[in-house]
Amino acid sequence: MAGKVSVIGAGAYGATTAHRLAECDAFDTVVLTDVVEGRAEGLALDIGQCRPIVGFETHVVGRTTGRGGDGYDVLAGSDVVVLAAGVPRTPGMSRQELLDTNAAVVRDAAAQIARHAAGAVLIVVTNPLDEMTALAQRVTGFPPSRVIGQGGVLDSARFSTFVADELGVPVSSVRTLTLGSHGDAMVPVPSRSTVDGRPLAEVVDADALDALTERTRTGGGEIVALLKTGSAYHAPSAAAAAMARAIAGDTGAVLPACAWLTGEYGIADVYLGVPVELGVTGVRRVVTTPLAESELAALTEAADTLRERQARLR
Ligand code: APR
Prior knowledge:
Elements: E1 4-8, H1 12-23, E2 29-34, H2 39-48, H3 51-55, E3 59-64, E4 80-83, H4 99-116, E5 121-124, H5 129-140, E6 147-149, H6 152-167, E7 174-175, E8 178-180, E9 186-188, E10 194-195, E11 198-199, H7 200-203, H8 206-217, H9 219-227, H10 234-248, E12 254-262, E13 268-279, E14 282-286, H11 293-312
The structure holds adenosine-5-diphosphoribose.
């Protein structure tokens, strides 16, 4: 595999994503940028110096960018751009409370992405995720299939981990799915979740299932409360890197992600977490999977909430 991936925002999430993408040798070049003078360059040197130890060849390039657009020419020729700039939550804060601050960051960065990496597939990870993905699509003017948010890979990884730990089984025997928002309107989907192929509801009782889905919904906040400064980035960066690799490798992997709906699940005109097939063009198609009646109702409700929030950002 060859090509170039650029990560905007060299904070915890962005730098770890760049590191993961460099180590897997899936791209010729990984670019890392940040507005803090020298941070991206320093981290790029540090990540690049892992090469002889870990054994990979990816070139890692760091660049300081100015808010007016200086330095963004480094994005030219990117196949994939990961937008990871913006502030994280502090304990007790909802992702929604980041909206005003991070909308300004996303508007600024998205305009530069459109200018310098007009052919890229854009993966947004900045929170509040669903709103920032919709905003990035609007500002770039990219086709919605080329602007995708990372939420569902992480949320379903958290769900799978909690299930595996509860039952004392390997995570590899667990499959879970979460849809809806990457936030309060998240829709964990037990009907599509299995342990060794058996429906989740057959292997845990109703109370345990409720506790597992609730912990999944609040899984990010649990980590923020423990860390006290900053939010999760190890599993989030693994999720973003998995999406970037699926896109660059044109693999057709089906992953849950925040994508634009045009009638799938009876829902349209909103960015919402759904399973998508990923390839070099971005979202090849939204995958419609059968849902229980209550799950479809929750997804429809999440769509209504998000459509309204996304419209408010116009
Ligand atoms: N362009 C580039 N980088 C920027 C910009 C900008 N306009 N504005 C801020 N940054 C950089 C900061 O300088 C910092 O290095 O974004 C980085 C954010 O890093 P952290 O504070 O460590 O936050 P992180 O944990 O990486 O989270 C980033 O991802 O999960 C979400 O909620 C989280 O929205 C947050 C984002």
